[in-house]
Amino acid sequence: MKAGEVMTILDNALRIGKGVTRYGKVAAYIPELAKKDKNKLGICLYTIDGDRFEVGNTEDRFTIQSIAKVMALCLALETFGAGFVFDHVGVEPSGEAFNSLVELDNRSNRPFNPMINSGAITVASMLEGRYSIEEMQKYMQDVCEDPEIAIDEAVFESEMATCARNKAIAYLLKSKQIIDNDVEESVTFYTQMCAMSVTARNLATFGLLLANDGIQLSTGKRLISSQTVRMVQTIMLTCGMYDGSGEFALKTGIPTKSGVGGGLLSVAQKKMGIGIYGPSLDEKGNCIAGCELLGYISEAFHLHIFDQTEWKVE
Ligand code: GLU
C-alpha cells in the first residue's frame, strides 16, 4: 500500500470516528475529566518500518488513566516475575464494569485480571513497595520516548477527592490479604500513575514497542522481554476493553487497552502501534470513536491477529 492510501484511510477513519462522537459522553465521575472537549479526536499510527501517520488531535495531552495498567503490568512482570504477579491477580475476563468489586467479594479470592481496577490496584501496590512514583514516571517516559510525561495535578487531585470506590476496593483487597502494603499509599500511587498526561503519539510509540517484541525501534534496545510482551498482549486482547472485550476482539482482533481519559492503545503484532485520543466514551467507558474506527482500520490494513494477508507500506 502507498503512503497516500494510508492517509486516505486515516482521513476516512477520522470521519467515521467523528460521526459517532456525539453519541458518547466524557467521563464525569472524575470532575476534572468532565471539563474535556468531547469533540477532540486524534489517531496516530507508528509502523514497524518507522513511518508515522497521523490525523486530528494527536499532540493534545490527556491523562492516560487505565492504559497505565499495561505499563504497570509490564514493570511488575519484569520486576517480580509472572509466578508472583499471577498468584495475586488472575487472567480471566470479569465480565463486570472496570470499577466493580462484586466479583472480588463474591466469586474469587483474587482480582480477575490486571486490567480492571481491583487487579491494577493490586499491581500498583506491589510496585509502590518497590518504586517511587518518579521511577514509575521515568518508566512511562522511557517506553513512550517522551520526557515530558508528567502528572496532571488537577486531574490527580480531582480523582483523589472522589476515589472512595477505589479505596473501598483497596481495603477489600487488604482484608483478603491480597495486598500487603499500605492501602492509602497504594491508592495514591495508582491514582498518580493514572494521572500521567500523554498524547496519542506517545501511545502509538508504546504500542510499536510492544508490536516490535519489546525492542525500541529508534535505538534497537530491548526494553521489555518477549515473554512479558506476549503475556501483556494476551491480557489486553481478552480483558483490555472491560466488559466490552469480547465484542471488541471479534470486531477488530487488535489487542487494545482503553482509559477513561479517552485514550486507546492498540498493538498490531509486527505491523504497528496505534494511539487514539477521543474523550467521548461509550457506556462501558471506552472511547466511542476509537472503537468504531478501529474496526474500519483493522479491515483496511489487515490488522486482525487472525488475518493472514500480507500488508506493508511501500
Ligand atoms: N483512574 C481511573 C479509575 O480508577 C481509571 C479507570 C479507567 O480508565 O478505566 O477509575
Q: Which descriptors apply to this entry?
A:
13 helices; 314 residues; 2 domains; single chain; alpha+beta; 5-stranded antiparallel beta sheet; 3-stranded antiparallel beta sheet; 8 strands; Beta-lactamase; binds glutamic acid; Probable Glutaminase Ybgj, Chain: A, domain 2
Question: How would you describe what is shown here?
Answer:
- Helix content is 47%, strand content 11%.
- The protein has 314 residues and is of the alpha+beta class.
- The chain folds into 2 domains: 3-64 and 198-301, 3-Layer(aba) Sandwich (Beta-lactamase), CATH 3.40.710; 69-77 and 97-194, Probable Glutaminase Ybgj, Chain: A, domain 2.
- Strands 2-1-8-7-6 form a 5-stranded antiparallel beta sheet.
- A hairpin with a 4-residue loop joins strand 1 and strand 2.
- Helix 2 (68-80) crosses helix 3 and helix 5 packs across helix 9 (183-194).
- The N and C termini lie close together (6 Å).
- The protein binds glutamic acid.
- Residues 65-66, 98-99, 117, 159, 166, 194, 259-260, 285 line the site of glutamic acid (GLU).
**Strand percent estimate:** 5-15%
Secondary structural class: alpha+beta
The number of distinct β-strands equals 8
Secondary-structure element sequence? HEEEHHHHHEHHHEHHHEEEH
Straight-line distance between termini:
6 Å
CATH class of the largest domain: Alpha Beta
User: What is the strand arrangement across the widest sheet?
Assistant: 2-1-8-7-6
Full CATH superfamily name of the largest domain: DD-peptidase/beta-lactamase superfamily
Q: What is the CATH fold-level name of the largest domain?
A: Beta-lactamase
Counted up, domains total 2
Attached small molecules: glutamic acid
Largest sheet: 5 strands, antiparallel
